[in-house]
Design a protein that fits this description.
The chain is mostly beta strands and about 120 residues long. It is built from no helices and ten strands. It has strands at about 5-10, 15-20, 20-30, 35-45, 50-55, 60, 65-70, 80-85, 95-105, 105-110.
Length: about 120
Amino acid sequence: MPPSMFVLAVLRRREILQHLNVIFLVPVHVSGPKIKGFFIQAIDDDYKPIGSFIKNDYSKLHDECSAITHSHPGPKKDVSFIWKAPQHGHGGNVYFRATILEEYDKYWSKVFAKVLRPPHF
């Protein structure tokens, strides 16, 4: 399979105050040609799920593995999501990896975004 034509990008984080706790929200964006589907997961240095995504109108959550996927089969282009860092500190890195489906017989797995290192989340 040729290299992915898609970019999985982590954008600048936002900090919000919620019940006297600082919550870190990190936008995650997929850009490239139209796609049929995606599965994006947040993992730590040990490949364990970390944090959670925030559901939007065109997504479905898989909280058990800190992942988000599409909720409808129609074409999608330039989709964005918000990932919420764990509320209690984390000493390692966070990686975002995706499987992106362009066609049923044409997909890319292990598409990684830039690594987030403490204290950037």
